[in-house]
Amino acid sequence: MKTIVLKQPGQFITEDRDEPGQPGAGEAIVRVERIGICGTDQHAFRGTHPIVTYPRVLGHELGVRLVDVGGHGTVTCGLRPGDSCAVEPYLHCGHCVACRAGKTNCCTQLAVLGVHVDGGMCKYLKVPAAKLHKSSLLSVDQLALVETLGIGAHAVQRADVQPGENVMVIGAGPIGLGAIQFAQAAGARVIVLDVNEHRLRFAHEKLPGIKTIRSVAPDLSNLKDMTDNQLPTAVFDATGNAASMTTAFGYVAAGGRLVFVGLIKADITFSDADLHRKEMSLLASRNAPSSEFPRIISMIESGQIDTTPWITHRSSFDEFAEQFPSWLDPATQVVKAMIAV
Ligand SMILES: [Zn+2]
Ligand SMILES: [Zn+2]
């Protein structure tokens, strides 16, 4: 089967690889229908991803159809051939301290499809059946968005956002957009901070009800004016930018939470006096645990989460390698590119 391989940074090649064999007990064979492209893929292509090794088959945002499950799988996992599913690409060990606590997203042995191990840029893929989350209502486009939405969903879950709360999301890229949508779904009033005019305009047009600030570091008095003189009680940094993450401590209200959603391989410093004075909670949010996937699917099904703003670019499988480099140019203003396989 035709498989797109990132042979080395900057070079996709097409290989003819064997289709996966019969599924064993607990395994499933799926037909990949849609592949979402995100910053992880861009970093891998540029050679700037801290984990990806080469050659690697990318593809971790997958909308698939079930072909077959191994053993007596259809009875035990409730899946039937033809079912449309989102793939949870985080392969966890099931017995480490994090897995035992249900935090499969930060398993000590975590292997992510398309990052640590080969992903879905091919026609057929073998995955653990437990990593498939089906929906009879969503399109394969929507199912391929579930993983990326999960990042924002989990961040909002981490902060336990409450109705009526003032929250701020820093960074209006795809991860920030997800955080905005789930914070709004939780009933929060959302302020979005970004330096990029196009991103802010996109967020403002597509996600009604948000307030936007275009600035590197907004004036605190301005922020207080927008939050009944309180500052935001939950702040999400979705930039992965060290300067932004450092500044973010200053925006959090007393007793509030700061959630680092974006990540960076760097040291972040902060004033302990400020942290203590506000008794601030600093939280990291990584991926999303298995339990989030059915919740996200049902929120899309019920219309609480609207996926219509998301897909801005499309490509066929055959044209992907040619198209991809153009999406690295910010001028193309990609939010989410979707590949039809
Ligand atoms: Zn992604
Ligand atoms: Zn584990």
Description:
By secondary structure, the chain is of the alpha/beta class. The chain has helices spanning 39-46, 73-77, 97-100, 140-159, 174-185, 197-206, 220-225, 242-248, 272-278, 292-301, 320-327, and strands spanning 2-8, 11-16, 27-37, 61-69, 84-87, 90-91, 111-112, 124-128, 132-134, 166-170, 189-194, 211-214, 234-237, 257-260, 281-284, 311-316, 336-340. The protein has 2 domains: 2-134 and 310-340, Alpha-Beta Complex (Quinone Oxidoreductase, Chain A, domain 1); 152-284, 3-Layer(aba) Sandwich (Rossmann fold). The protein is 28% helix and 26% strand. Strand 10, helix 5 (174-185) and strand 11 form a beta-alpha-beta unit. The radius of gyration is 20 Å and the shape is globular.
Distance from N terminus to C terminus (CA atoms, Å) equals 12 Å
The helix-and-strand class reads alpha/beta
Major β-sheet annotation: 7 strands, mixed
Q: Are there runs of 5+ residues with pLDDT below 50, and where?
A: none
What gross morphology would you assign?
Answer: globular
Strand content: 25-35%
Order of helices and strands: EEEHEHEEHEEEHEHEHEHEHEHEHEHE
Which bin fits the share of residues in helices?
25-40%
Mean pLDDT: 95
CATH homologous superfamily caption of the largest domain = Medium-chain alcohol dehydrogenases, catalytic domain
What fold name stands as the CATH topology of the largest domain? Quinone Oxidoreductase, Chain A, domain 1
CATH architecture of the largest domain: Alpha-Beta Complex
- Number of discrete domains: 2
Radius of gyration: 20 Å
Q: Please tally the helical runs, counting DSSP H or I stretches of 4 or more residues.
A: 11
The ligands found in this model are:
zinc ion
